[in-house]
Amino acid sequence: MPRDSRKALIEQIEQARGSRVLVYVTGDRPPAVAQIGDDAVRPMYAHLREMGSVEKLDLFIYSRGGAIDVPWRIVTALRQTSKEWNILVPFRANSAATLIALGADQIILGRQGELGPIDPIMNIQRMIPQQAGPPILQQENMSVEDIMAYTKFIHERAGLSDQEALSNALSKLTDRLDAVGLGNVYRTHLHIRDVALRMLQSRKKPVSEREMASIIETLAERVYAHGHAIGFKEAEGIGLPAKPADDALDDLMWQLLGKYEEDMKLLDPIDPVTALGNGDLFQEDAVIALVESTAFAHELAGTVEVRARRQQPPNLNVALNLNIQLPQNLNPQQQMAMQQMLQAAQQQIVQQAQQAVQDALRQQAPLVGFDAGFRGGKWRRVD
Question: Which of 121, 141, 124 shows the shortest CA–CA distance to 64?
Answer without folding.
Answer: 121
